[in-house]
Design brief:
Elements: H1 3-14, H2 18-25, H3 29-36, H4 44-53, H5 59-64, H6 103-110, E1 156-159, E2 165-168
Antiparallel strand pairs: 1-2
Helix pairs in contact: 2-3
Length: about 170
Amino acid sequence: MELNERITKVLEYSKLSPSEFADEIDVQRSNISHITSGRNKPSLDFLIKIKDRFPELEWDWLIYGKGEMIRKELETPLVEKPKPTSLPDLFSLIADDNFGITESEDRIISEPPRESKIPLPSQTSEKIFDSQRLEAEEKSSSIQNTDNQASKVKRIVLFFDDGKFESFEP
């Protein structure tokens, strides 16, 4: 018996439609049709998902086709696992009156902190009011007299708006 035929047997055993089976083992629905038709071979991950969902299946039968499909001690018809209707709320998870705090956590909470309390330096700054004028720094304009200096033009570069440039040297 080929592997795709064994997958078909598991599908029949589960009494689920192919799409329900795909949802149950958390694979794409197209994977089921591709595998059962023989177009694709199942991956190891696919087989592990089947085995995790149906632990009563015999691993050697699923992989190699040897032995029986169902374990002897678990040969009972498939009973659907009840799906949780809702997630538990936080208050149902608390078993005792100390709100889930362990003894070591309680000790940590009640101990004083180890850091020394150093006061922060006081920041005294002058407050500036909206009506108060800011003092502008006087900038000394340093215009140098270049009449006495002998400077020569070394190079002139023109940049154009299309990204090109030209350089001229006298």
